[in-house]
Design goal:
The protein is globular. The strands form 6 sheets. It has a 3-stranded antiparallel β-sheet with strand order 3-9-8. Strands 4-6-5 form a 3-stranded antiparallel β-sheet, covered by helices on one side. The protein has a 3-stranded antiparallel β-sheet with strand order 12-11-13. The protein is of the alpha+beta class. Helix 14 runs antiparallel to helix 15 and helix 16 packs antiparallel against helix 17.
Length: 529
């Protein structure tokens, strides 16, 4: 962990009920914890609607996953999964095959008609055609009786039953889209059932394939709650969904994953919460979203200029949008001089945030060609502005991302590496623990160091590279970055996963380059890779 990072508040926030000690009395504590969990579940059992299928889910866990996790129901939260034994960081918790996979089918007359319906009735269809295709392909053979255009297969009753147990809002009436689908494609299906299945896919699916685009649902994995500081992470192994512990999980801990991508976990709390509500229809109340400080929204102290001031996290409950509110900054104190921000200070900082947001948006416009790329003087001005105001801020990270790209295109590798280094430091400080985005930023910085260390390619010789003798320290730094990135990615996804394997190949090349420059072979500056 980079020194000076201000993210250690998580250790103080975790209540004992979420993280139990497993010292010398591990077995006795497991018995006590198991008894406590069983008592809690029994207390709520009478309030658990049978339609939630908690017993069925637990039977599935015993039959297919060695009973590694148990499902229970909490009135204030719903169904959750808790660990029934301890897991070390990086350990595989379970592997699960898809419950159901649906892909676009451009050769299907039914899918083509669905695409046409979405265009003709665009005011009624709120989602892309694939979402509705997933729902239609989740009907049974009986429900597809009389379906139009042919080519329908239908799923079995058990698979549909498991699908219907996945989370979705209560449906009491069908939408106009579901009514149209029933009339135009599946007249034997209840429009309310189509509505339920559409919601289930929208709220529970995972991306499965890109070409053709496809989604998959997984039964047991779908009952894990979200956290912006999750203790588990999933990845694919073929079609299977593999779940690993991203830090140690104790017996009785709730097992959580992130519904956001890795880079999304680095965003400020209001942005994360709004994104989750927009896509998954809930307002996050995890440790990071309800902690004392938002470590992705930090500024330089306007008083001492040495310390940092961090925004408070938003109040629980709904928010109007993802706006970074000024009220969350009023009265917060510097971690160095202790001075609190005044309303005037806050007004200035929020103004700077808006300016930076516009810069980031303008840089994105340069990418799509609607605006000319900034020159070196403009980039330096933006860099100076960021350095003068922001200390640990997600918007600054997005700006550094764009600055690094601009410098890289012009082969200003020293400036590119500087921007990438700042991104690495932000990712290390804003999120405690292992994060894939941090590893990928280190990989990018290592790549930049390797590019700047190449003197030339040797013509006529395959994979022959001439390294600059003066770049030995850069190559060593690239090795360090690749090693740290590999450690994170191999723990989160396994050593054989493509994420880790790619970094492993790069670190081997970097180490060979260092070794060559330290031997007689380096005198000629030539290394056969």
């Amino acid at each position: 962990m980079t020194s000076g990072c201000t993210n250690r508040f998580f250790r103080k926030l975790l209540p004992s009920s979420l993280s139990w000690s497993m010292g010398g009395g591990q077995r006795e504590q497991e018995k006590q914890s198991s008894a406590g969990n069983q008592k809690l579940q029994e207390e709520h059992s009478s309030a658990v609607p049978l339609s939630l299928g908690v017993q069925h889910i637990n039977h599935h866990s015993k039959e297919h996953h060695a009973d590694v996790m148990g499902c229970s129901y909490l009135p204030h939260k719903g169904r959750i999964l808790t660990a029934k034994r301890a897991f070390s960081d990086g350990e595989i918790i379970l592997a699960e095959s898809p419950l159901h996979i649906v892909q676009e089918d451009e050769s299907s007359a039914a899918f083509q008609h669905l695409q046409g319906l979405c265009k003709t009735y665009s005011d009624d269809f709120d989602y892309d055609p694939l979402w509705f295709w997933c729902a239609l392909q989740s009907l049974t053979g009986d429900q597809l009786h009389g379906a139009k255009f042919g080519g329908w297969k239908g799923i079995d009753v058990i698979t549909q039953r498991n699908l219907l147990l996945l989370h979705h809002d209560e449906v009491h009436e069908s939408s106009s889209a579901s009514d149209i689908l029933a009339h135009e494609l599946a007249p034997g299906a209840d429009p309310i059932l189509i509505e339920r299945l559409t919601q289930i896919w929208v709220l529970n699916c995972f991306e499965y394939s890109d070409d053709p685009q496809g989604y998959a649902t997984y039964f047991f994995s779908s009952f894990m709650s979200h956290s912006c500081w999750p203790n588990a992470v999933w990845h694919y192994s073929g079609a299977d969904h593999v779940l690993r512990a991203r830090r140690r999980i104790e017996f009785g801990d709730e097992v959580t994953i992130s519904y956001l991508p890795e880079h999304g976990l680095l965003q400020a709390s209001p942005v994360r919460r709004f994104e989750l509500h927009d896509t998954k229809r809930f307002w996050c109340t995890c440790e990071r979203c309800t902690g004392a400080q938002d470590h992705s929204r930090g500024f330089k102290c306007p008083r001492c200029e040495d310390g940092k001031v961090f925004s408070r996290t938003p109040e629980p409950g709904p928010a109007k949008d993802a706006t970074l509110m000024s009220q969350h900054l009023v009265g917060v104190s510097c971690d160095s001089c202790g001075e609190a921000l005044t309303k005037r200070d806050v007004s200035r900082l929020v103004g700077h945030e808006k300016k930076l947001k516009k810069l980031v948006d303008d840089y994105a416009s340069c990418k799509n060609g609607s605006k000319a790329s900034p020159d070196l003087a403009e980039l330096q001005s933006a860099e100076d502005f960021i350095d003068s105001v922001f200390a640990q801020h997600a918007l600054a990270d997005l700006a550094w991302k764009q600055l690094a790209k601009f410098h890289g295109r012009k082969r200003r590798y020293a400036k590119q590496q500087q921007m990438l280094g700042r991104r690495c430091r932000f990712h290390a400080c804003a999120y405690e623990g292992f994060n894939g985005s941090h590893a990928w930023r280190m990989e990018s910085q290592g790549d930049a160091l390797m590019r700047s260390s190449v003197s030339s390619k040797v013509s006529g010789q395959k994979n022959a590279t001439v390294w600059q003798a003066t770049s030995k320290e850069d190559l060593r730094e690239a090795c360090r970055l690749y090693n740290e990135a590999f450690a994170i990615l191999s723990l989160m996804f396994g050593k054989d996963h493509e994420y880790a394997a790619q970094v492993d190949r790069k670190r081997c090349i970097a180490q060979k380059a260092v070794d060559a420059l330290c031997t007689d072979e380096a005198a000629s500056g030539r290394l056969q890779l």
